[in-house]
């Protein structure tokens, strides 16, 4: 039965194939390509000098630096924790394993705005830990720690979810063989486990970094949108646009769009070069 269905699918008429391809291309053109082209066209509409002034303005530079700093902290943290979680889930059996998997997927099912609000309720001035933090002169919400926490939360699943199915598909035979030959657990991890999943790890890091630098909802709630202090690039773009500074907003947006294009190119090259490995990592 599957073979017959597959044969029918391959035997569709040329007209049907053309219509399906045309619909797909029209969708991509309308909802992906045109908005992306519009960003770059509007960014350069007033010339290079206006573009350069928009992205080198002090608040813009502060937003760029803050975005890079948050990503530079959140992404490595998620790499370490994601690898540890994937290793534990794929290689060991323990009580609460299914719960851990569900918790890893939690950020996918919770609105980023809600997650940001949770951090405000926990660490804000009127939150559960607010009085204690204020008494010790510590600030999380409306400061860098809050941005990092919000970003870590929304980006955490990307690394772990790429690694878990790949590690599960590989099994534990290689690790057991290395242990039998006398290798230490850490040597097994760095010499056997990590090299076996390096491309899935890289794939997850790409997605994690792109989301970290482009995150808006959760970061908007915990930032307070303080110019030059807690504004990341997406928040700075919103402020510029709301103040009718469209050219400047599109100029900064073009930097994020450029990051998206770089991520897309790397993702495409990775899938082209290591498609079989990545496909195996997605099989449960």
Automatic annotation (TrEMBL):
One cellular component term from this protein's GO annotations in UniProt: plasma membrane
Transmembrane domains' residue ranges: 14-41, 62-90, 110-129, 141-160, 201-223, 244-266
CDD domains: TM_PBP2
Keywords for this protein: Membrane, Sulfate transport, Transmembrane, Transmembrane helix, Transport
Gene3D superfamilies registered for this protein in UniProt: MetI-like
Main location: membrane
Membrane topology: Multi-pass membrane protein
Annotated compartments: Cell membrane
A Gene Ontology molecular function term of the record: ABC-type sulfate transporter activity
SUPFAM superfamilies noted in UniProt: MetI-like
PROSITE patterns xref list: ABC_TM1 (PS50928)
Residues of the ABC transmembrane type-1 domain: 64-267
General function of this protein: Part of the ABC transporter complex CysAWTP (TC 3.A.1.6.1) involved in sulfate/thiosulfate import. Probably responsible for the translocation of the substrate across the membrane.
Self-association and partners: The complex is composed of two ATP-binding proteins (CysA), two transmembrane proteins (CysT and CysW) and a solute-binding protein (CysP).
Record-given protein name: Sulfate/thiosulfate transporter permease subunit
Species name: Bosea thiooxidans
Record lineage: Bacteria, Pseudomonadati, Pseudomonadota, Alphaproteobacteria, Hyphomicrobiales
Gene: cysW
């Amino acid at each position: 039965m599957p073979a017959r269905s597959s044969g029918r699918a391959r035997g569709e008429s040329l007209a049907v194939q053309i219509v399906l391809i045309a619909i797909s291309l029209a969708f991509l053109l309308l909802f992906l390509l045109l908005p992306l082209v519009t960003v770059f066209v509007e960014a350069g509409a007033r010339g290079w000098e206006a573009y350069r002034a928009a992205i080198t303005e002090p608040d813009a530079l502060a937003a760029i630096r803050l975005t890079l700093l948050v990503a530079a902290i959140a992404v490595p943290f998620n790499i370490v924790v994601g690898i540890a979680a994937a290793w534990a889930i794929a290689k060991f059996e323990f009580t609460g394993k299914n719960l851990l998997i569900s918790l890893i997927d939690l950020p996918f099912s919770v609105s980023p705005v809600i997650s940001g609000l949770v951090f405000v309720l926990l660490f804000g001035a009127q939150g559960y830990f607010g009085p204690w933090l204020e008494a010790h002169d510590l600030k999380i919400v409306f400061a860098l720690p809050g941005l990092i926490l919000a970003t870590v939360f929304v980006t955490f699943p990307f690394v772990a979810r790429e690694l878990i199915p790949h590690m599960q598909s590989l099994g534990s035979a290689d690790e057991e063989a290395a242990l039998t030959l006398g290798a230490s657990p850490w040597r097994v991890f760095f010499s056997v486990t990590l090299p076996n999943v390096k491309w899935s790890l890289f794939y997850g890091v790409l997605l994690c970094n792109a989301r970290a630098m482009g995150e808006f909802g959760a970061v908007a709630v915990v930032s307070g949108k303080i110019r030059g202090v807690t504004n990341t690039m997406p928040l700075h773009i919103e402020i510029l646009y709301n103040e009718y500074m469209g050219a400047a907003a599109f100029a900064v947006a073009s930097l994020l769009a450029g990051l998206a294009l770089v991520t897309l190119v790397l993702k495409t090259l990775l899938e082209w070069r290591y498609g079989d490995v990545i496909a195996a990592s997605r099989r449960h």
